[in-house]
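Thread: "does anyone have the structure for this chain?"

Original post by V.I.:
We have the sequence but no experimental structure in hand. Need at least a predicted one for the grant figures.
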Amino acid sequence: MENVEAIVKEYIQNELIHDESASEITNTTPLISGNVLDSITILRLAVYLEERFNIEVEPHEIGVENMETIDMIADFVRNRS
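Reply from O.Q.:
Generated one for you, tokens below.
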């Protein structure tokens, strides 16, 4: 399978974060509780995941349980594929 972590990280850095902090994002950076992503950007990320990886993300799955870090997002995608 593709390097999901790298794909997600690139999308977050290039499309969702528009300041110098984007380069500081790691695979274990807390994205939601760390206020890196807000409610709008996390929804944009969920739509991207659906389109890019051809998966379905249910509304109740959008949150810290599945999308707190890039590693967690990648695991979520792999479990859906």
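V.I.: this helps a lot. The chain has a mean pLDDT of 94.
O.Q.: and The CA atoms of residues 9 and 70 lie 7 Å apart.
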